[in-house]
Amino acid sequence: MTFFAIYPAVNDFTSVFEFQVKSDQTIGNNYEMSDLLTSKIEPTQEKCPQLSFYHRMSQVIINITSGGDSVGDLSINCKKQLTCDVANGIYTAIGGNIAITPVVNGNTGFKAIIAPQVVAAGTAFATYEVNNMSYTWKPKTDLTFLS
Length: 147
Description:
Blueprint: E1 3-7, E2 16-20, H1 30-33, E3 37-41, E4 54-55, E5 58-63, E6 73-85, E7 90-100, E8 103-104, E9 109-114, E10 117-119, E11 126-130, E12 133-137, E13 143-145
Antiparallel strand pairs: 1-3, 2-6, 3-4, 5-9, 6-7, 6-11, 8-9, 10-13, 11-12
């Protein structure tokens, strides 16, 4: 028998399921609960097999060079949902893009957990708003986020 373990736990676990990151990762433990960890153990005779967990999401860190602290608001435009096939190690982003609110990362940036995905060149990916000004960043080439 093959054993699977995931964190955070889901009800009615099957080896293929859907998972989604939290839209506002600044609230409570939403940032941590957006990170999916999985473990798979092949059949063994061990009475206490060791579990090795792997991060299946992507972490995005965006640093702001503004001559000061991260006083503005940042939103990341991306897919937040994915289909997880733990048995085969396939994690595929699904659904449309939504705004993710990242947490502050130190004094000069932000970080967020997102689903592994490709963000097409020219797509508005990050928007920073500060002092009634809005700055949008669009990648010049496709961005590939892996687990």
